[in-house]
Every structure is written in C-alpha cells, then in structure tokens.
Amino acid sequence: MTNQIAIWLGILILGGIMLDFAAFGTEHLLFLGKKLYDFLDWLAFWR
Question: So which domain of life are we looking at (predicted)?
Fold first, then answer.
C-alpha cells in the first residue's frame, strides 16, 4: 500500500466516523468500538 492510498483511506475512515458522530451521536461509535474489540480478540484466538 502506498502512502497516498493510506492517507486517503485514513481520511475516508475519519470522515465516516465524523459523519456517524454528527448524525447519530456517540452511542453508535461506542457500540462499534466494543464490537471491534471483541472481533480483534476473536481473531487473536484463531491466530
């Protein structure tokens, strides 16, 4: 992955998070963070 692709991907992810925060508030972001943590824990188990 080139630096340019990584920067654009980071901008898109941050833009999506900001849009979710502006439209729905912080509850959804907290829920997604908890689910991401559970998913990473599950992936670490299978590694």
Answer: Bacteria
